[in-house]
Amino acid sequence: MLNREQIEAVIPHRKPMLLIDKITDLMPGQYASAQAMLTGDEFFFQGHFPGNPVMPGVMIVEAMAQTGAVSILMLEEFKGKTGYFAKIENVRFWEKVLPGSKLELSVKIIKRKGSVGVGEGEAFVSGKKVARATLTFAVGD
């Protein structure tokens, strides 16, 4: 549905911190799904870990957050704003995410009051769940 250029029109992240390549499903303010194609050239693989590259868990969570941010920042009232982390809970990792993986992300917005909300995120590789997290966000300037 949205390519990288269109994602950049919605969220403020830029390379190397823009971690999602395309949005595959979207309902503004309700949910979003995204993909990240991990080539192995990403900056975090260089030092995590040399000879045994693994995507850091915090980067998986950040990719989830960017996916949810697209959904929230597509709402007219939040266009041009930034979504900030307010809390991260219930994080769990099951599998390593390696270079060459297609990381599939989904975030469902489960609660929102004004500019603060909560999303439930999940990440998959080859249909297997690799991570989940509950993400609380606040939208601001």
How are the secondary structure elements laid out?
Layout: H1 4-8, E1 22-27, E2 31-37, H2 43-47, H3 57-73, E3 82-93, E4 102-113, E5 116-125, E6 128-140
Antiparallel strand pairs: 1-2, 2-4, 3-6, 4-5, 5-6
The biggest sheet amounts to: 6 strands, antiparallel
Q: Strand-and-helix sequence, N→C?
A: HEEHHEEEE
Low-confidence parts: none
CATH superfamily, by name, is: Hotdog Thioesterase
Please give the domain count: 1
| CATH class identity | Alpha Beta
Could you tell me the radius of gyration in angstroms? Answer: 14 Å
> How much β-strand is present in the residues?
35-45%
Structural class comes to alpha+beta
N-to-C CA distance: 26 Å
Look at the structure and give the mean pLDDT.
97
Q: In percent, how helical is the residue content? A: 10-25%
Looking at the overall shape, the CATH architecture is Roll
The dominant shape is: globular
Which strand order spans the largest sheet, edge to edge or round the barrel? Answer: 1-2-4-5-6-3
| CATH third-level topology | Thiol Ester Dehydrase, Chain A
Number of helix segments? 3
User: What is the number of E strands?
Assistant: 6
